[in-house]
Automatic annotation (TrEMBL):
Similarity field: Belongs to the bacterial ribosomal protein bS6 family.
InterPro entries in alphabetical order: Ribosomal_bS6, Ribosomal_bS6_sf, Ribosomal_S6_plastid/chlpt, Transl_elong_EF1B/ribsomal_bS6
CDD domains: bS6 (cd00473)
Organism of this sequence: Geoalkalibacter halelectricus
Any one Gene Ontology cellular component term annotated for this protein: ribosome
Segments of skewed composition (Low complexity): 102-114
Region (Disordered): 102-123
UniProt keyword annotations, A-Z: Ribonucleoprotein, Ribosomal protein, RNA-binding, rRNA-binding
Protein name: Small ribosomal subunit protein bS6
Entry-linked Pfam families: Ribosomal_S6 (PF01250)
Function comment: Binds together with bS18 to 16S ribosomal RNA.
């Protein structure tokens, strides 16, 4: 399987449970084809760079997933057929999926100073 990223923009009038159902529907498209959705990022409602279908805003989503090449074509076909999707774009990630970092942990105030001291001692 290959790694992919697909960004799509949802019509701004789709909100709440309808929006969640739409995302679940597209997750099901990927997993139904044998793919694996690794992460879904919701960027929220944003102003579009240019009007699409006379709309100035849309809700952005990014799917990170692994799937076969034919599976992506089917996923894109389903996105194209759905009237609630304004635009989409898929990319094949040659380097694989990005490492999704855990939330940053706070370091103790002295920990940074210790690292700086160790680096200075190496020179």
């Amino acid at each position: 399987m290959r790694s992919y990223e697909t960004m799509f923009i949802v019509h701004p009038e789709v909100v709440g449970d309808e929006l969640k159902a739409l995302v679940e529907k597209f997750k099901g498209v990927v997993t139904g084809q044998g793919g694996d959705v690794v992460k879904v990022e919701e960027w929220g409602s944003r102003t579009l760079a240019y009007p699409i279908q006379k709309l100035a805003k849309g809700t952005y989503f990014i799917f990170y997933y692994q799937a076969g090449p034919g599976d992506v074509a089917e996923f894109e076909r389903r996105l194209r057929l759905d009237d609630k999707i304004l635009r989409f774009n898929s990319l094949r990630l040659e380097q694989g999926l990005p490492q999704f970092a855990a939330p940053a942990q706070e370091q103790a105030p002295g920990a940074e100073a210790e690292v700086a001291t160790e680096e200075a001692g190496e020179e």
